[in-house]
Amino acid sequence: MMRVLAGFVFFLLAGYVQAFDYLQPLPPVPPSPADNQPTQAKIQLGKQLFFDSRLSYAGRTSCNHCHNILAGGSDGRPLSIGDSGQANKRHTPSLWNVAYQSVYFWDGRATSLELALQEHLLQTHVMGMPNKNTLVGRLKAIEGYAKAYQQVFTTDLTFDGIAKALSAYIRTLITPNSPFDRYIRGDKTALTDKQQRGMTLFREAQCLACHFGINFSGPAPGPAMNMGDGFYELFPNYRGTVYEKRLKIADDLGRYTVTGDPGHKLMWRVPSLRNIALSAPYFHNGSADSLQQAVTVMAATQRQRTLTAKEVDLLIAFLNSLTGEYPSQTMPLLPPTPNKAVP
Ligand code: HEC
Ligand code: HEC
Fold first, then answer.
1. Tens-place pLDDT, residues 55-114
2. How confident is the model over 119-140, as a mean pLDDT?
């Protein structure tokens, strides 16, 4: 499989059209790598770590600070402020259903969830840990973590293991049974008439050429896509629209910043559209503050098409049907450090 697949080509290859279901329901359980199979104890440890701000250098930022799991999975800001007090360059994605992605980050630079988190923990404007040992040392000094870690991994606490436990928890963040899923499974009453017309338009306007598969972000890891291979597209696909300057969408060169390959300029991982109604603002720089605007910009920049207000409304109706059921999250108890300051 090519590392960079172009959606239109993919769409037009008759073989794939037959071999691949463009509209797919969310499977109940995502894949986990052989060396990080989930257990209840590992997931519980990952969840504690996720909500614990001691994972950040200054101690004020938990993962949940930006990826608010109790809400849509992000913080609603165009660009989030990290532990350093400074804003990130790219918008915070929702973590719900990321378990079905084949590469991570907007530019796809991480080839697994575990590797994404290893990088993330050490990013200055995210958790701000200066190096692996600082984090490992701090968590080891918290007795509850040292013990729980031993029980889960049967070794002393390591940096890799921290990323593994966090990944195991993130793979439980699945939102099944959206109206769309119920419809695809055969309940023809699950979508309203308007949503069905929106789905037809989504296909007819060829949004589906890029946004298809489990997460509407291209093929998930499986027969059509190896884990670590990404599905990238140009954004903007057509240059020179009014939105390009207004939203500064061509200022960041996307995948090129990772590979340095001129052919990758302005290429981005096709993002998920599941629960999209709940993760405003939109785009890699958070520049579109409503779904109406994001859809309008997409049609113009990707399909060179000006949508009528009615068409935008239909597409939004369909996109609303992609909001699934959020399993309620109980807050974990975090291991204390009796009679001591945070190590
Ligand atoms: C300061 C805000 C902030 C904090 C805190 C934060 N993240 Fe992120 N996260 C981001 C941003 C911004 C991105 C996108 C970065 C990029 O694409 O370059 C991201 C991306 C991710 C991704 C990849 C998602 C995808 O769609 O590819 C995962 C997974 C993730 N974060 C998990 C975590 C975990 C686990 C923690 C805690 C250890 C955490 N994040 C803490 C802002 C944050
Ligand atoms: C040529 C491929 C392509 C086509 C066609 C396309 N998109 Fe996209 N879409 C993308 C890419 C790539 C991005 C990520 C943009 C970025 O990096 O900011 C995206 C982003 C989005 C987003 C914002 C996602 C987020 O989390 O911020 C929405 C909503 C969206 N598309 C909807 C649509 C709709 C509706 C259509 C049809 C009118 C469409 N797209 C057509 C490739 C495409």
1. 999 999 999 999 999 888 889 999 999 999 999 999 999 999 999 999 999 999 999 999
2. 96
Yes or no: say if 174 and 28 are a contact pair by the CB < 8 Å rule.
yes
- Give 323 Cα–ligand 2 centroid separation in angstroms: 17
Inter-residue long-range contacts of 118-122, CB under 8 Å, 24+ positions, other chains counted: 118/159, 118/160, 118/163, 121/55, 121/159, 121/162, 121/163
Q: How many angstroms is it from 92 CA to the middle of ligand 2?
A: 16
CA 309/CA 317 separation, integer angstroms? 12
The average pLDDT across 177-198 equals 97
Give the lowest-confidence range in 11-15, 181-185, 188-192. Answer: 11-15
Residues whose CB falls within 8 Å of the CB of residue 129, separated by 6 or more in sequence, listed in order: 55, 56, 57, 121, 122, 135
286: Cβ below 6 Å to ligand 1?
A: no
Q: Which of 154, 148, 156, 125 is nearest to 46 (CA)?
A: 148
Which ligand 1 atom is nearest residue 83's CA? Answer: 1
d(CA 149, CA 128): 22
> Is 76 in contact with 280 (CB distance < 8 Å)?
yes
